[in-house]
C-alpha cells in the first residue's frame, strides 16, 4: 500500500491521539486532521476516579496542549461533528458542510454508553459516564448524603461507586449477577472485589431497574426484586455500544463494531478503524471480541501507524487492563477463562495456566506480578503451577531463567 | 556547590529493583528513586508525572522504569517519558559510585 499523504481521523480519543503521535514518530510528515466533537482530545480513565477526588479540568486531561499539537503537526478540528464519509473519495463531511479529504480515513469513533430501555430512562437524573461533561454532571449530583443508584457493577460501575462513596454519597449498587467480573478476574478475586462495596457502606443488590419515576421529594426507582428506592440520581454503567453509524451509512461491513482485518483495514481499502469501535475479522471470517480497554486502543493506533507508513507492526502481546477503586489497584493480563487451571499466589494474585503456558493473570495491589506474567505470556515461557503458587519465588526469576520458547504443552 | 549525598551501599539495591531516598536526605523537591539496572545505578524524581505513583515501586527493565500504576514508562538515564499515559518527563539526578557508597548528586534544578 502506498503511504497516504493526508490522513483524516474521525474521533479524538486515545486511539486518535496515539495514531497522530506515532505517525510523527515514524517519520510521517503529511497532513493529519483529527475531527472531534468534544472540545479537546483527552484521556478518559480519570473520569470515573480522579474526577471525583478533586478539582479537575479538561486541560488537565488533554493528551496535549495546543502547542504540542502544533509541534506534532496535528490539525485538530474540535467541537465538530462528522455527518458522513465517502470512502471512495476519502472525503469526510462535517456538520457545517465542510468536506475534508484524505488519502486515508481512520475511524476512531469509539462507543457510546449503553442506556436503559425502560420507563423513566430519559429522566434528567439518569446519567451515563463517557465524556467529561458526563463526569461533571455526575459529580454535581454527588453531594454528601445524596442517594445515587448505580446500575452495573463492572469496571466502570465499581470505580464510580467507590468514587461516589469517597464523596459521602449513599450508594445502592445493582447488577444482574451475584458476582460481577468473574470472567475477567476469576471467582475468588471477583468475590473479594465485589465484597469491598458492602464493606464501604454500599447497599449491594442483585437486581435490575424496572422503572423510574418522579416521587414527592426526588425520584423513585423500582427494582426487579420488588424494592422501591427513593433516589436523587441514577448512574448507568452497563457497557458501551460501538459508534458504527458513519461506517454503516458508508456501506462498510459492520457487526457490533466496524469490521477490520489485522491491519485495521475495513471492508474499504481506504478506510481504517481503531479503538473501541473496531472489531477484528480474521481472514477465515472469524469475528473476534471488540477490545474496549485503554491499552487496546493505544496498541491499535500504534499498529495502524506502522501499517500506514509501510512498516510491520510490533507483535501484539496479551491484552492488559487496570482498575482503581477504594484503596486497591487491580490489574489483569490475558484471559482467566477457558481450558486450563486456576493457580493462586496468596490472596492477591491469580493465574490461569494452560499446560505449562501462562495465559492470564490478575492481581490486587501487586502490579509486579502482572508485569511479570505479561512477559511470561508474551514470551511463551513455560512455568510450573507450583512455581507460580510459591510466594517465596520471585516471578522475575522465572523470566530471568527463561527457557527456550515452548512450542507444545 | 551541590553535595554528593551517600544514599545507599553497594548491595543494598538488588538488580532490577529500586529504593526510595527521602527528600529530607537529598534536600530535593521530590523524593528520589534510586535504581539498579544491570549493574548500573540511576536516580529519578520519585513521582510519576501521570498520577503521582512512586517510581521506586515500578518495574525496571532494559534501562526503563514502568510506573506501578498505569505503565507510563520513563528512561532511567534521563527521565524522558517514553509512553502514555504519562506525557511529561521526570527529572534525573546524577549517581556516582565511590567505593562501597552509592552517591546521589541532586539535580540543581530540583533542590528545595
TrEMBL record, chain A:
Pfam families from the UniProt entry: Pyr_redox_2 (PF07992), Reductase_C (PF14759)
Keywords: FAD, Flavoprotein, Oxidoreductase
Hydrolase in keyword set: no
InterPro entries attached to this UniProt entry: FAD-oxidoreductase/Apoptosis (IPR050446), FAD/NAD-bd_sf (IPR036188), FAD/NAD-binding_dom (IPR023753), FAD/NAD-linked_Rdtase_dimer_sf (IPR016156), Reductase_C (IPR028202)
Domain FAD/NAD(P)-binding: 6-298
Cofactor list: FAD
Oxidoreductase among keywords: yes
Record's protein name: Oxidoreductase
Organism: Pseudoclavibacter chungangensis
Organism phylogeny: Bacteria, Bacillati, Actinomycetota, Actinomycetes, Micrococcales
Automatic annotation (TrEMBL), chain B:
Recorded superkingdom: Bacteria
Domain Rieske per the UniProt entry, residue ranges: 5-104
Record keywords, A-Z: 2Fe-2S, Iron, Iron-sulfur, Metal-binding
GO molecular-function terms, A-Z: 2 iron, 2 sulfur cluster binding; metal ion binding; monooxygenase activity; oxidoreductase activity, acting on paired donors, with incorporation or reduction of molecular oxygen
SUPFAM superfamilies referenced in this protein's UniProt entry, alphabetically: ISP domain
Any Pfam family: Rieske
Alphabetized PANTHER family for the sequence: 3-PHENYLPROPIONATE_CINNAMIC ACID DIOXYGENASE FERREDOXIN SUBUNIT, FERREDOXIN-RELATED
Name of the protein in its database record: Non-heme iron oxygenase ferredoxin subunit
Organism listed in the record: Pseudoclavibacter chungangensis
